[in-house]
Amino acid sequence: MKIMNPFPYSQDNKRYYTWNHYLKSTFNSKVFKVPLDAGFSCPHRNSDGIGGCTFCSIAGSGDYAGNRKDSLRQQYDEGFAMMARKWPQAKGIAYFQAYTNTYAPLSQLKEIYDPFFDNHPALAVAIATRADCLDEKIIEYLVEKNRIKPLYLEIGVQTIHDETANRLNRGEHIVDIEKKLEMLRSAGLNVVLHIINGLPNETAQMMIDTANWVARMSPFAIKIHMLHIIKDTVLAKQFEKVPFSILTKEEYVDIVIRQLEVLPPTTVIQRLTGDAVKEDLIEPIWTLKKVSVLNDIDKAMVQLNTWQGKKYESQKH
């Protein structure tokens, strides 16, 4: 007997609130992101690009972003044209992906972002950044821009466990991130939180604890990522010297499902696995088969008869 999907926020029989469902429901169109590199750096990298989070690639997590030597308009137009070959009727979101995209004086941010809100074809703007690179004036500016067209503010959290964050050279404490998220919530901005599963020395329960924390923060959306060990990163050198345990695909699928169960059913799931450049990926190789990972999550959720938020209501928030 076929089991009917009990989850309401899905157009493609998923048991979680897909980003695709949100976009189609909100904009009545297929929508894709166009990743951009605006030339930013990061508060924990020096002028030579050394430092930063131990897992972060030399491209500052913008491996698929445009070429920072090109103008932002050229990056957007070329990226949009490439995506439009697959989806000719779709619309685009300008996605400022590489490095920390509010790590600059407000005057510089205005020069970069104002054109994307004024007479630009982008349907919306997504900005990836860190909580410690947002102050009251920058938040006020982002609120102002959000009134012109939709803005999605992506915040890297990765883990709520400070001991893990310290080992990763994150340079942030969870209590400080919480305070900033409260400011963003009060400002009414659409916040997307990033977390990473499989960080060194973290147990499955620690990863579930991070998801429970996300549930308490109740963000607009979340991105869940498996740790990638990338060539030429500090983490890769550490892994070579002292290998640590890597989650198997089966373990990852199980953890993601348990995380989805405790998240609010109205939190949009923008990502359940990430992309790495094949030539640069050391481990885990199974992440290269992204569709397989997503299919396994879907199948397991049906077999378990579970869905996003199934265990959320029983918690006190």
How much helicity do the residues have? 25-40%
Q: Stretches where pLDDT falls below 50 for ≥5 residues?
A: none
Please write the string of helix (H) and strand (E) elements: HEHEHEHEHHEHEEHHEEH
Global Rg: 19 Å
**What's the number of extended β-strand segments?**
9
Provide the spatial order of strands within the biggest beta sheet: 1-2-3-4-5-6-8
- Any idea how many domains? 1
CATH architecture: Alpha-Beta Barrel
The major beta sheet can be summarized as:
7 strands, parallel
Strand fraction equals: 15-25%
What overall form do the CA principal axes indicate? globular
Average of the residue pLDDT scores = 91
Remind me, CATH topology? TIM Barrel
CATH class: Alpha Beta
CATH H level: which superfamily? Aldolase class I
